[in-house]
């Protein structure tokens, strides 16, 4: 009888071992299960089970130890969800107080607007909403979220204009606002991002007008203004002494003398195709030893194509449909 009692006690102890060793904070688990319910319990969140540890192989979930808590959810990625019908961004997301990364991607049936309650996520560093049907203007209440380091709002139904308050976010390193219905001009304030700001991607919208000259003061690594209706002078974006690696101005209405621009030695990608840019190709292009991709096609450029540096790897298509460019890889100059 004594031996049987010991065995029963051991079995009871073993039955409680998973719960005792679970890293997932109970509050976070409850919030995540509520998020799953608010999304109609999609089948590809089948790993989210009450009986398992949310910090251990739940799809799209990562946990980390904090200074005051053992383990809390800091990363939530909702992607490729096969939702049974349209749902808004789940309200219970704001009940994950240690969340730093929120990524909602590749799910057409996520609809509605960004909820004001998102400001309760006081540690959020990255907000990604991409390939969804989330709509509406970029909300001003995001300006309260001073912890944000990167904002990606792309290939969805966002509309309205670019918010002039974006540079007020002190930790912002990049914005990726692409492939939506954002219209109007680029605000003058966009030349006043902090010195940690490195990426500005505004491609595939309906932006119009001239760009602020102050954009030339930014020390960017990546600048993408392609596929808009921007016009006028963009020569100030090319400056020596910067750390620019990629610049895309293609498919706009820019018009300036390309022969007078200066180049960052770190440039790897240049695409100014499909504009109204004129002048010659500067010989300084041959000093860009890191250049991997170069496209000036469909412009009004003239003169002999310089050879050397990264330009020696370019093809005829990189220079096609200009006013009077000549020399290899195009026909020789007369």
Automatic annotation (TrEMBL):
Residues 1-21 form the signal peptide. Residues 25-64 form the Leucine-rich repeat-containing N-terminal plant-type domain. Keywords: Leucine-rich repeat, Repeat, Signal. Transmembrane segments: none annotated. It comes from the Eukaryota. Pfam families: LRR_1, LRRNT_2. InterPro entries: Leu-rich_rpt, LRR_dom_sf, LRR_N_plant-typ, PGIP. The keyword Repeat applies. It is found in: Cell envelope. The keyword Repeat applies. Belongs to the polygalacturonase-inhibiting protein family. This is Leucine-rich repeat-containing N-terminal plant-type domain-containing protein. It comes from Psophocarpus tetragonolobus (Winged bean). The lineage of its organism: Eukaryota, Viridiplantae, Streptophyta, Embryophyta, Tracheophyta.
């Amino acid at each position: 009888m004594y031996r049987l009692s010991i065995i029963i006690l051991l079995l009871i102890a073993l039955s409680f071992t998973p719960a005792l060793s679970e890293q997932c904070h109970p509050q976070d688990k409850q919030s995540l299960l509520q998020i799953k319910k608010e999304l109609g319990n999609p089948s590809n969140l089948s790993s989210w089970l009450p009986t398992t540890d949310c910090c251990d192989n739940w799809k799209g979930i990562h946990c980390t130890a904090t200074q005051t808590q053992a383990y809390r959810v800091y990363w939530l990625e909702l992607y490729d969800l096969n939702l049974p019908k349209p749902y808004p961004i789940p309200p219970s997301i704001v009940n994950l107080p240690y969340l730093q990364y929120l990524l909602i991607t590749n799910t057409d049936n996520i609809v509605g607007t960004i909820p004001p309650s998102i400001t309760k996520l006081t540690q959020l560093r990255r907000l990604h909403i991409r390939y969804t049907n989330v709509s509406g203007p970029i909300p001003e209440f995001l300006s309260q979220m001073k912890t944000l380091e990167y904002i990606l709002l792309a290939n969805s139904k966002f509309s309205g204009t670019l918010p002039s308050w974006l540079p007020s976010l002190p930790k912002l390193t990049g914005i990726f606002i692409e492939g939506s219905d954002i219209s109007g001009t680029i605000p003058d304030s966009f030349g006043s991002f902090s010195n940690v700001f490195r990426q500005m991607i505004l491609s595939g919208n309906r932006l119009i007008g001239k760009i602020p000259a102050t954009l030339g003061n930014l020390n960017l690594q990546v600048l993408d203004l392609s596929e808009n209706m921007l016009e006028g002078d963009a020569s100030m974006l090319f400056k020596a002494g910067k750390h620019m690696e990629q610049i895309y101005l293609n498919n706009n209405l820019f018009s300036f003398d390309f022969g007078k621009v200066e180049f960052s030695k770190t440039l790897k990608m240049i695409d100014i195709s499909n504009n109204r840019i004129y002048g010659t190709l500067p010989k300084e292009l041959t000093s860009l030893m890191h250049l991997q991709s170069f496209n000036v096609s469909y412009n009004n450029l003239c003169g002999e194509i310089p050879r050397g540096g990264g330009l020696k790897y370019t093809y005829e298509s990189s220079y096609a449909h200009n006013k009077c460019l000549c020399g290899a890889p195009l026909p020789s100059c007369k």
